[in-house]
Design goal:
The protein is mostly helical. Helices cover about 70% and strands about 0% of the residues.
């Protein structure tokens, strides 16, 4: 399940939270997780723009 969680934004967030809260990591130790979350955000934003443009206009 941990491997499958890597394909979801929630899995990356949980990994970062665990590092920060349980293992005493610093902000710089979770840069990979933050980058993954930002990548998900950009991808989902692009999908939203495409879907919004293709949706029929309501008058």
């Amino acid at each position: 399940m941990q491997t499958l969680a890597r394909i979801t934004p929630h899995g990356w967030a949980n990994s970062a939270f665990n590092k920060l809260m349980l293992f005493g990591a610093e902000g710089g130790d979770v840069v990979l997780e933050m980058a993954a979350r930002a990548t998900f955000g950009v991808c989902f934003l692009a999908i939203a723009f495409v879907r919004f443009r293709l949706s029929p206009r309501v008058s």
